[in-house]
Amino acid sequence: MKGLSFFGKAIFFLNSIFAILLVLGYALPYIPPHIFPRLSVLSLLLPVLLLINAIFLIYWILRGKRQLFLSAFVLIIGIGHISSLYHFGNSVEVASEDEVTLMSYNVRSFNIHGWSKQENIGDRIIEFIAKKDPDIVCLQEYYPKYALSKEQYPYQYKKMSAVSKNFGQIIYSKFPIVATGALDFKNTGNNVIYADVVINNDTIRVYNVHFQSLRVSPKFDTFNEEGSKRLLGRMGESFKRQEEQVMMFLESEQNAPYPVIVAGDFNNSSTSYMYRKVKGKKQDAYEKVGSGTGRSFTFDFIPLRIDFILADPKFEILQFKNYDVNLSDHYPIETSFNKNFKF
């Protein structure tokens, strides 16, 4: 570090720490959370780490210092991760009668606990979904007081959680549902449910997933207000439970008799171990035809994408949308696929 002032050396020391953290973040999709549970939080902070390293890179470029190569290197090796965090869309236009639309939305119990001071949120959420009129709807944190009509969605499957009869998940469908089921995670309000849906004489399985919640406030101040050690410990335990739940899901998926679509709230990012395991060889609808950051969760200035729609490669994904609807701590996501599939 010859030629650097004391201040320059201090900056490069910080640069080195954030470069190491970023590389660790790159490795996390391949490390089961039970090995380093607290370290798994880096998967959620990857956008911030990328931005910080980009700032360091610009700083060294402006100073004309060779230290720029450190951040340049860690950013280059993470090109694949960057593409999963920001995407340029490439949607396919087809006649509306040839597509099936599927929406996923964590509705945060329709605000029955009063987290938002907005009025009539439950009714407004139902009105929004009914107006968009998707063919299949997967809701997480569902509360039975608010429901879409039987006339619009004649086929429905709901499953309340293991800890409350007033909290669960539901799948609405305009197409016939011929079988249903749930994985029934123990001692948690989270779950995975599924419905086998018949479309054009072919059957597909739709999973509505809600993996273990991290129980983190959607405010960055949380990391200051709560002891960081206690917060990271709690999040680490949640990551370990997610891993267990994912193993249960993969066993169910392996035995599924039909091609699957997985939709819902993963409570983790696209750079996590559990996302990589659940995705497998499936298509991520956002990565296939989406655009922008794909933000699905409110967390101050970080555009987190923790809600996903993944589909068997046999499906032709046509469109993906994020709706900027501020009625929950999550944003609704929707995809469409060509219904003229043959398996």
From TrEMBL:
Domain of life: Bacteria
InterPro entries listed in its UniProt record: Endo/exonu/phosph_ase_sf, Endo/exonuclease/phosphatase, TDP2-like
Transmembrane segments: 12-32, 44-62, 69-88
Domain spans labelled Endonuclease/exonuclease/phosphatase: 103-330
GO biological process: DNA repair
Pfam families: Exo_endo_phos
Keywords: DNA damage, DNA repair, Endonuclease, Exonuclease, Hydrolase, Magnesium, Membrane, Metal-binding, Nuclease, Transmembrane, Transmembrane helix
Protein known as: Metal-dependent hydrolase, endonuclease/exonuclease/phosphatase family
Organism name: Dokdonia pacifica
